[in-house]
Each structure stands twice: as C-alpha cells, then as structure tokens.
Amino acid sequence: MSSIFHKIGVSDEAAATAYSREQGLKPHTDLARRVTTDRARASRDLRILLVSDIVASGDLIRRAGDARAHELFRMHNTMIRRCLAAHTGREVAHTGDGIEAAFQSASDAVDCAIAIQQVFAAHNRAQPAETIQVRIGVNAGEAITTEGRLFGTAVHATFGICARAQPGEILISEVVHQLVTGKGFVLVSRSRVELKGLGRVRVYGVGWEEAGV
User: What pTM did the predictor assign?
Assistant: First the structure.
C-alpha cells in the first residue's frame, strides 16, 4: 500500500480515494483493488501470539493493598516489556493483568516466555512476601488486525491456552510445538484441554527451570 501511495504522490487512503476520483477511476478499478488486496494480505499474516496473565490478580490486590499492588503491576509490566524488547516481540494490547504480544518467530516467542518466567522466579525469590505468579500461552495462526488489536480464532485460542496454564507454567499449541521442535527447548506433552468454542486441543508444556533457574 505504501508503494502505491508513493507512486501516485499521496500519503494516506483518503488522499488515494480522492486521486482515484480525480482520475475517473471507480472503486472496483485496479487502484482500489490493489489497495484492498494489500490491506487484506497484511492484516492476515501468520503471527505467533503470546498471552500472559497474573494468576489470582485480585488476591494480590487484596493482599498488598491498592497502592502497593499498583506498583507491583507496573513492575510486572516493565519486566514483561523488557523481555519482549529483548526477543523482538511487539506488544499488541495490555489486558489489565497481562499482556498480549505478537512475534514473527515461534522460537523468539518461546524464548521470551522462558525469559518472562525466569525473571519472575528471580523476583519471587528476592521478594517472597510479594510474589507475582504468571502463566503464559503461546499459539500461532492468522489474525485480523482491527483498531490496533488482533481478532480471530487464533487469538481466542491463545487466551484459552493461557487460561489453562498453571502458575509459573508455559503452554504452547500443537502448531507452535511443530515449529520449535528440534530447537533445543524442553517440551512436555500435556493432556488435551477444552477450549470454549474450539473443542479439545493438544497443548505442550515448556520447561524453563532447566535453563538456569
């Protein structure tokens, strides 16, 4: 789309629409078709999705009090964002007590998930009275980009996989398992889990304690 805009000397879709009208082009002509096709292709690229969630976040707030819990949540956000930056992850949305992120590489996503669990394990050892338990789900699939968010079955499944993880656990989908097999990760088959609206799917746990914790 950027290439099209550059060629006709405009900066956005509105200007491109005005240009097409000035040139007597109809909405179904090549310009409109190429813009629509490029947008559809870009919005449905395969993405590796990671979703994290603070376990029992309500209990953490009651235990620590509003002010301290707010500080802990900010610390949590900073720790995860540093891990994303270190593993080429892109934050898609902050969910209140977790983060949704996207990666181009399945290995980067799993490496990032391991780094997240390791950094929280270190925090919990140093601050046993203010522990933060995180669970993580990783999945892969096509997703529609809409209003800065990702939407679709793959996103729904990723949140469902995350919800099935235990405190301190990383669960990945079958497709991510296939993508990272042979890359040196410790992968353990789990029983199939029920995901609302999607039926039973196989998931795998990722060992991270063996990687230096």
Answer: 0.76
